[in-house]
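Q: For a teaching handout, I want to show students what a protein-ligand complex looks like in token form. Below are the inputs, and the small molecule is 1,3-dihydroxyacetonephosphate. Please produce the holo structure.
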Amino acid sequence: MYKTLKELTDYADKLNMTVGAFNMHNLEMLPEMIRAAKETGLPIVIQTSVDTAKYIGYDVIVAVCKQLAANNPVDVALHLDHARDFKAIQDAIAAGYSSVMFDGSNLPFKENIAKTKAVVDYAHARGVSVEGELGTIGGTEEGISVSEDDKEYTRPSDAIKFVAETGVDALAVGIGTNHGQFKSKTNVKVPLLQKIHESVEVPLVIHGGTGVKEEDYAELINNGIRKFNVGTELLVNWTQTAKGYFEATEVNKSLRHNIIPCNEKVKEIVKHKLLLFMNADSPLNRGNSHG
Ligand code: 13P
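A: Here is the structure, written as tokens, with 1,3-dihydroxyacetonephosphate included.
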């Protein structure tokens, strides 16, 4: 079924697990991402950047997601990731996205609150969930250094005010993670997450999931993470697989031959992550061999 982010995080909260949110970078990988969810029996968030949405078409992505969710069947939310302008949010909602993120983390605190609240009012009136962001999430290993210095961590007192005044359905927190970190791993600030979790009731979101150590997942989930974003790991593996296949084949070979293994690699990773996101402490996992 096609669902909102809020419906999925409510489910995750009851079961003390996190929903996996995976960035699709092209349309090819989407069916296998949703099949991975079906095979694990777990819900999934499919997310796109604004640029990917424009490249494929907001309405095309919505149509394919809805059809795949119905065919498989599995609970799917479609989320717009890191939108910084209101027009992109309007376009996504008009096309049928069930969730949007307004990223005002680069704005002064008061302006972030005011703009996020405007998005919440607009989206909620149309039955769509909203994720906001407080604090900054660091840069990538490609070009930009993954550094401790350029980050502003989320302050629990700010989180209280931000959540109360905006009414967001989920909050992305800056606790040491970095977007695009695929060569090294980060040291997540769990005590800070714990304080934020004690301060606000809203589901918390991890960005830069590729750079998070898998052994840290359970602790993050036990401290309120209910949406866990993974993008770069899928992108890197799809591309590496594609490189190998395309380099090794004749130019007139069917594209299918080269692209199916890339999509299957994505499916394998999504399945692996989803099973880990079903926390060992979750009732779903008791007596389950995945634990
Ligand atoms: P990674 O690409 O680092 O996994 O992060 C994904 C993300 O947080 C998307 O917003």
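A: Two things your students might notice: The pocket of 1,3-dihydroxyacetonephosphate is lined by residues 23, 81-82, 179-181, 207-211, 229-233 (CB under 6 Å). Strands lie at 2-3, 19-23, 44-48, 76-83, 99-102, 129-134, 170-173, 204-206, 225-230.
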